[in-house]
């Protein structure tokens, strides 16, 4: 059983030919709202794509934006531990989505800033606590400390990127980052391999978009190339990866198998619009894994290793 403690935002998404540069005005094609927020996205992925019992601790405002978030999480089977914040609005995110599937995101955290250490429920029965950085850092640290004392594995997705104190990293069992987040956390501007060398965390997973991902576990490297899909919207793909990875590990899968599963789920998430709405079901992930049983061909692996500075 997994507990996700983190953010929930209502995403306001405008589709346009390209993401505007500073000072540029771009005419969009259409506008929709979608349930989002890194924490909520990852909780939906744990439950829907991962197929595991999932709880979520979140803070919401007393406003209309909270309802679609609660409905989406409830629809995915996530059990909610909701902190109702009367003086702050529900978190929102404003997203410009290009026709190539890339995005630019600005978050107004709202009620997410109100999660406090005392809000954490009892950790009895949970195997993993999944955290992100869209809630106050001192709260994240307190939750990680409580999990460590309770014998619950701490999984931290260090996003949005920020420098982390050594005391927090010392509490993390599994750190999940993209390339930019890795450089920020490592406080190093070198290659991916060099950045990894700066981090003293038992397991570090680095997601690399269409190239795949890399994990270092107790000094051993594991590689997973990406599944081939036609991307429609990459929003939430990283969150789908995090949630699916955590779910697979909670079910006893090996790290290489969990990387494969999470990569398949993330690839499918790129083929639909929205964050939570794009999270695939466990059956859809299993079907893709049957269709593309082995993506680690020598050419793709060589390219991934070269990207990481390890050829």
Write the layout of secondary structure elements.
Layout: E1 2-5, E2 9-16, E3 28-36, H1 38-49, E4 54-61, H2 66-75, E5 79-85, E6 91-98, E7 103-108, E8 128-131, H3 137-150, E9 153-157, H4 166-169, E10 174-178, H5 179-186, H6 192-197, E11 203-207, E12 212-217, E13 220-225, H7 237-250, H8 255-269, H9 282-291, H10 298-307
Parallel strand pairs: 1-4, 1-8, 2-6, 4-5, 8-9, 9-10, 10-11
Antiparallel strand pairs: 2-3, 6-7, 11-12, 12-13
Helix pairs in contact: 1-7, 7-8, 8-9
CATH homologous superfamily identity: Ribokinase
The main sheet comes to: 9 strands, mixed
Portion in helices:
25-40%
Strands ordered across the widest β-sheet: 5-4-1-8-9-10-11-12-13
The separation of the N and C termini measures 39 Å
SS-based structural class?
A: alpha/beta
């Amino acid at each position: 059983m997994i507990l996700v403690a983190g953010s929930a935002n209502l995403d306001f998404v405008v589709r346009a030919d390209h993401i505007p540069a500073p000072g540029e005005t771009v005419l969009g094609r259409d506008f929709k709202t979608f349930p989002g927020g890194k924490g909520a996205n990852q909780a939906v992925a744990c439950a829907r794509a991962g197929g595991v019992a999932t709880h979520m601790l979140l803070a919401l405002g007393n406003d209309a934006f909270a309802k679609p978030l609660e409905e989406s999480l409830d629809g995915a089977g996530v059990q909610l531990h909701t902190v109702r914040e009367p003086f702050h609005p529900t978190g929102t995110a404003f997203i410009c989505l290009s026709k190539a599937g890339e995005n630019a995101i600005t978050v107004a955290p709202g009620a997410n800033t109100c999660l406090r250490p005392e809000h954490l429920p009892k950790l009895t029965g949970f195997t993993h606590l999944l955290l992100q950085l869209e809630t106050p850092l001192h709260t994240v640290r307190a939750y990680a400390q409580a999990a460590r004392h309770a014998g619950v594995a701490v999984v931290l997705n260090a996003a949005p990127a920020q420098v982390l104190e050594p005391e927090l990293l010392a509490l993390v069992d599994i750190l999940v980052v993209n390339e930019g987040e890795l450089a920020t956390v490592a406080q190093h501007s070198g290659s991916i391999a060099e950045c990894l060398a700066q981090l003293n965390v038992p397991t570090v997973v680095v997601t690399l978009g269409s190239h795949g991902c890399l994990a270092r576990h107790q000094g051993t490297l594991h590689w997973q190339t990406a599944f081939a899909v036609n991307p429609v919207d990459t929003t939430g793909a990283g969150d789908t990866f995090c949630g699916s990875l955590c779910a697979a590990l909670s079910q006893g899968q090996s790290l290489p198998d969990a990387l494969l599963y999470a990569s398949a789920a993330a690839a499918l998430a790129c083929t639909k619009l929205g964050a939570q709405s794009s999270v695939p079901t466990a059956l859809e992930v299993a079907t893709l894994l049957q269709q593309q049983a082995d993506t680690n061909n020598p050419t793709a692996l060589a390219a991934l290793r070269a990207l990481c500075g390890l050829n």
